[in-house]
Design a protein that fits this description.
alpha+beta
């Protein structure tokens, strides 16, 4: 993937930074609420500092079993895994869908990582509450949405077979080799 595509990460981060700054300001003024009664959906805009990890949401017993530093350990492992995955996949993704998936993954991860390093947790500003068939609520931000989009796009790229398993890092070399094999 050409380095110029990584500039998009900065473009993705600008609205996230603005929304987080606005949510901090809104925390001082009070939260806003949007209730959609027929849809069983309530959205609250505010400021929430999430010091836990996603593993704490999906597998709270695992995080508790790891003790007081379990969240920090899981976050560090998640960051390392994500970084290695992006380094591994950036030369193997052969489609625009996969490239955008990697860009969204880096933008979402960077947005949340900057929060953790600067304020000690992720700044979430949307509280979504669903009632009806599914009764749940969770805090969310634009970086989380970027990560969700990345997962969808990367799974779509894998399902379409757009992941090149070869170890070549320059597509020009592999194209030349394929041309030579066809001529023989």
């Amino acid at each position: 993937m050409h380095w110029t595509r990584w500039i998009w990460v900065l473009a993705f981060l600008v609205p996230e930074v603005l929304l987080k700054a606005r949510s901090h300001q809104q925390a001082l003024e009070g939260s806003l609420e949007l209730q959609l009664p027929q849809q069983h959906l309530r959205i609250e805009w505010g400021y929430h500092l999430n010091q836990g990890s996603a593993v704490g949401f999906w597998f709270p017993s695992v995080q508790r079993a790891l003790g007081p530093h379990g969240s920090t350990l899981m976050i560090c492992l998640g960051v390392l895994f994500s970084a290695f995955f992006v380094l591994w996949a950036q030369h193997r993704v052969a489609s625009t869908c996969g490239h955008w998936g990697l860009l969204f993954l880096v933008a979402g991860g960077a947005g949340n990582l900057v929060d953790r390093l600067s304020v000690g947790g992720v700044i979430d500003y949307w509280l979504l509450q669903l009632q009806g068939v599914i009764n749940t609520s969770f805090y969310w931000n634009l970086s989380d949405l970027y990560i969700d989009i990345a997962i969808f796009l990367l799974l779509l790229a894998v399902a379409r077979g757009d992941l090149d398993d070869s170890d070549t890092t320059d597509s020009g070399d592999s194209n030349e080799l394929q041309g030579e094999k066809k001529q023989q």
